[in-house]
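hey so u asked for the seq, here:
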Amino acid sequence: MNFNIQKYQETQQFIKNIAKSQDISDKIITIAVSKSKKIETIKEALEQNIRIFGENKVQEAYEKFKDLKISYSDLRLHMIGPLQTNKVKKALEIFDYFHTLDREKLALEFVKNLESNANNKYFFIQVNTGLEDQKSGIEPKYVRDFSSYCSDELKLNIVGLMCIPPINENPEPHFLLLKKLAKENSLYQLSMGMSNDYKIALKCGATFIRIGTQFFGKREQL
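ran it, structure tokens below
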């Protein structure tokens, strides 16, 4: 499937309506999640003036976007998948935003590899709102300590929180919990909501939504 510009425009219109009804002045960012999509499909999106993409694998993202980021200086790439510490250095070469900071070891690896462009890298702390054993993320009760550690001691540019609600639960309580935690920690960006629940996320205060299937269709084999 090609990039569905009509679905993208419908999403942007919904965002405008939400922003107007809630008197939201801050910009809401739509991340077009292009993981597993071929470069030809990504180029179609670029031709439609889409400039914000999300990927979940470092090597795949590097191969697809290293040249595109040179050609499109306003292109921004978001890391939305789990990140291994041995991939951090390469990830910093290609990604601008990191949505899955979830442990001290990873935070220290970021610090170790950040250079003079540290202010141009933005980090979200991933929160395990559902306390799921199989899912990454900081437990809600530890968000304050971890956020302070990353911001104050490590000087990482922490801008917000991210969550992925349990797949078989109503996402709204998880989104509201994330909003509450963000407010308590003076963080103003909320990365929450995907193709199946982004409308709920926006009503709960999302500022970054991560949408793949709705724009690109099912996964492709690269």
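The longest helix spans residues 5-21. The radius of gyration is 17 Å.
lmk if thats what u needed
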